[in-house]
Design goal:
3 strands, single chain, alpha+beta, 13% strand, GIY-YIG endonuclease, 156 residues, 2 domains, three-stranded antiparallel sheet
Length: 156
């Protein structure tokens, strides 16, 4: 399996950087479909797709990686380098280390007005509870985070 980091470039020189384990073609089709969805109407990427049309986007593969961690690093670096005109609402990877105030504001704005059903809330609660329910899953997560910090020269 390989992970691809890709870029969508719009006519106004704005960009979207993404990461996928599927083919870039499959991911592009998903973006195209989501742009039509009412659910995603406030997300900057899909606003741009609707503004310019899908056919006006230039797609480029920035890299292909065997390891997810390598792909996440490339995605984050690419977003950081283009942050002044980047459509990404998160900083890349899992998006949990988002220190960029502008990106946090975009995430917040994208969530305004979105309501989750009780069923969705319950599914999320169960998934989050299950995620670290075993010692093995906590240890695995801990090891991933240690590796992530070492790669960036953070921590011990």
């Amino acid at each position: 399996m390989s992970f691809k980091v890709y870029m969508a470039k719009f006519p106004d020189e704005t960009y979207y950087i993404g990461l996928t384990k599927r083919t870039v073609h499959e991911r592009k089709l998903e973006h195209k479909s989501r742009a039509k969805s009412e659910k995603h109407k406030k997300i900057p990427l899909y606003l741009k797709i609707r503004e310019f049309g899908f056919e006006k986007i230039e797609w480029e593969i920035l890299g292909e990686f065997k390891e997810l961690e390598e792909a996440e690093i490339k995605e984050k670096e690419s977003i950081r380098l283009r942050s002044f005109n980047c459509l990404n609402i998160l900083s890349g990877g899992m998006g949990t280390d988002n220190k960029n105030k502008e990106l946090r504001i975009r995430v917040s704005e994208g969530m305004v007005g979105r309501k989750q059903s009780k069923e969705t809330k319950e599914k999320l609660r169960k998934a989050n509870k299950k995620q670290f329910s075993t010692i093995e899953s906590r240890q695995k997560h801990s090891e991933r985070m240690k590796k992530w910090h070492r790669q960036r020269g953070l921590g011990k």
